[in-house]
């Protein structure tokens, strides 16, 4: 069973459109580098990453690199060596798509067979009952890691969701209530009152194109 941790994130402005990579920024600031496929292949970018890691550690800073494809790192010797040799902590999301060909990744990240068994339980165990919505992540400090369940509140989930039906349903409430915050609060309130799963509630709002019937603030009569 994964360990459940609650993380406080500073809400960012809603982003229109589908994100190729979603990053939640914590309360404390950090230098976060995202590795786009074409840029990482550039010798200039490789040199920059190497310079960044060497410099930031001298000033007691912390560099964080996020990528969806480990090939971005594996395919560039300079970047691979500079990142991995200076990374004390590694976070891995669901690795199931690499399971049949994990030898190179395991060797690159020095992952033992025992640690691999942990990694391949990510989001696969029957451990959801009685818990809020969460996703799992493997966190390794040094040679040993654990799988943790990271639970966000429903407000955080809806703010950052990239699922079009969910975004559209929240937008219905935003337009009805005038501001994003008011609309989001009303959406969650109506969702809880309905007793429906999020998916069913979203479909209902999508069909009707209006806040749920009985949404007290929206349907309150206005008297002059």
The radius of gyration is 21 Å
Protein structure class: alpha/beta
- Mean pLDDT over all positions: 77
Give the ordered list of helices and strands: EEHHEHHEHHEEHHHH
Distinct helical segment count: 10
Number of strands: 6
Task: Indicate the overall shape.
Answer: elongated
What is the helical fraction, as a range of percent?
40-55%
Q: Approximately how much beta-strand content do the residues carry?
A: 5-15%
Task: Write up what this structure looks like.
There is one protein chain. The longest helix is centred in the N-terminal third of the chain and has 16 residues. The chain contains 10 helices and 6 strands. About 12% of the residues have low confidence. The strands form 2 sheets. A 4-stranded mixed beta sheet has the order 1-6-5-4. By secondary structure, it is an alpha/beta fold. A hairpin with a 2-residue loop joins strand 5 and strand 6.
Task: Write a brief structural summary.
The protein has 224 residues and is of the alpha/beta class. It has helices at 37-40, 43-58, 71-74, 77-84, 103-108, 113-119, 154-160, 164-177, 180-194, 198-208, and strands at 3-6, 31-34, 63-66, 89-92, 134-141, 144-151.
């Amino acid at each position: 069973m994964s360990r459940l941790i609650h993380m406080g994130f500073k809400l960012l402005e809603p982003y229109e459109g589908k994100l190729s990579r979603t990053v939640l920024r914590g309360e404390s600031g950090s230098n976060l580098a995202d590795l786009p496929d074409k840029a990482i292949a550039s010798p200039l970018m490789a040199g920059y990453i190497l310079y960044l890691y060497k410099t930031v550690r001298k000033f007691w800073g912390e560099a964080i690199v996020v990528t969806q494809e480990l090939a971005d790192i594996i395919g560039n010797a300079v970047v691979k060596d500079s990142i991995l040799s200076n990374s004390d902590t590694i976070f891995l999301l669901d690795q199931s798509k690499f399971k049949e060909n994990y030898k190179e990744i395991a060797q690159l990240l020095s992952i033992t067979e025992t640690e691999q068994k942990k990694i391949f339980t990510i989001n696969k165990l029957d451990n959801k009952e009685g818990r809020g919505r969460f996703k799992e992540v493997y966190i390794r400090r040094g040679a040993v890691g654990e799988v943790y369940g990271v639970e966000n509140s429903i407000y955080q989930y809806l703010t950052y969701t990239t699922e079009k039906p969910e975004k559209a349903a929240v937008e219905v409430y935003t337009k009805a209530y005038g501001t994003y915050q008011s609309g989001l609060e009303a959406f969650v309130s109506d969702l809880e009152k309905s007793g429906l799963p999020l998916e069913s509630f979203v479909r209902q709002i999508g069909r009707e194109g209006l806040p749920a019937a009985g949404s007290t603030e929206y349907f309150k009569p206005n008297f002059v």
